[in-house]
Design goal:
The chain has 342 residues and is an alpha/beta fold. Helix content is 32%, strand content 24%. The chain is built from 10 helices and 14 strands. Strands 13-12-11-7-10-9-8-14 form an 8-stranded mixed beta sheet. A 6-stranded parallel beta sheet has the order 3-2-1-4-5-6, sandwiched between helices. β11 (253-261) and β12 form a beta hairpin.
């Protein structure tokens, strides 16, 4: 039996708890035994938390051991892995502490607040000989997996252009306002836009340069609340991504893409995935019904069970490169959209 604890019981942490409860209900060999949050009120399942995604509902924390200090939890519990869903600036500190304690780590995206922190996390994983995986959930999301297969096998030819968007309301609900504090979150660019940064370099490799425009409306300390980036590739394909967390009203949340190939198009809209081949009728491909959150946790369980230390889908070099690119985008936006080489 693999014993697991979740550190950080906000919206994302609760979502992960819901996945573990589902796995246990299915008879999996994964057992959630403890949860940890500095805010003791969040250790009660009835506490309200916000979020642009739906947190798991109907949770029961009564059987779980509860901690407000993850270092004490690491000392007291016999854990196989921890699932870290803390604010971004705490990822490196918590991951390194767990790895140094001999515990594997699944850590929420983004990997860390700086490249230096990423490197420290990787070094800790190498020292410990334990798995470390960053939960870049779109790498496990069925619609994005389908797009990746189309890019890799060339069934619709070469990529001509690609557009990615995600957006929702300002995360004023975040604990202590950390998401709108640039020093802790990196603003929309490093928290929300980082999904598309990661997807783009996963699909197409790292670009040779980036140029980014950003607008600050609400984030404190120099971050951005809306960004648009062009990714420059040697083969000339036109790739851009736009992310915005200033959308008002009851819009909710949206993540979409449109990728044009020489012989077709693959499009994810709010209505689902649709494929438009040249010379044939459009169709909706059959996809796995599970979302990326469930599938990334299942993938990490397989990684631990096989005794491997690194995910082939989300390798550490790749998730580190995402931070390199995102920070280069930040620098470009700070310079009014300058084209910056990587």
């Amino acid at each position: 039996m693999f014993k697991v604890a979740v550190i950080g019981i906000g919206s994302m942490g609760r979502g992960h708890v819901g996945v573990y409860e589902r796995l246990m209900a299915q008879g999996s060999d994964v057992e959630l035994v403890a949860i940890c949050d500095i805010d003791a009120a969040k250790l009660e399942a009835t506490t309200e938390v916000g979020g642009n995604i739906n947190s798991a509902s109907g949770l029961d924390f009564s059987r779980l051991r509860k901690y407000t200090d993850y270092r004490k939890m690491l000392a007291d519990e016999q854990l196989d892995w921890v699932d870290i869903a803390l604010p971004t600036h705490l990822h490196a500190e918590a991951a390194i502490a767990a790895l140094d304690a001999g515990v594997a780590v699944l850590c929420e995206k983004p990997m860390a607040r700086s490249v230096e922190q990423c490197d420290a996390m990787i070094a800790a994983a190498r020292r410990a000989g334990k798995p470390l995986m960053i939960a870049q959930c779109l790498r496990f999301w069925p619609a994005y997996e389908y797009l990746k297969s189309c890019v890799d096998d060339g069934r619709y030819g070469d990529v001509v252009s690609a557009y990615f968007f995600r957006g929702g309301s300002t995360p004023r609900w975040s604990w202590d306002g950390w998401l709108t504090d640039f020093a802790r979150s990196g603003g929309v660019l490093l928290d929300q836009h980082v999904h598309d940064v990661d997807t783009i370099q996963w699909l197409f490799g790292a670009p040779r340069a980036v140029s980014t425009l950003g607008r600050n409306v609400l984030t404190n300390g120099g971050g951005y609340d809306a960004v648009s980036t062009h990714y420059h590739y040697a083969d000339g394909k036109v790739v851009c991504a736009q992310d915005d967390w200033t959308i008002n009203g009851d819009f909710g949340f949206s993540m979409i893409f449109r990728v044009n190939f020489t012989r077709g198009m693959v499009q994810l809209s709010d209505d689902g995935l649709r494929v438009y081949p040249v010379g044939a009728a459009s169709f909706t491909p059959e996809l796995c019904a599970d979302d990326g959150y469930y599938r990334e946790i299942c993938a990490f369980r397989e990684l631990v069970a096989r005794g491997e230390t690194e995910s082939a889908v989300a390798p550490l070099a790749g998730t580190r490169e995402t931070i390199v690119i995102a920070l280069r985008e930040q620098a470009s936006a700070d310079q009014g959209g300058a084209v910056l080489e990587l």
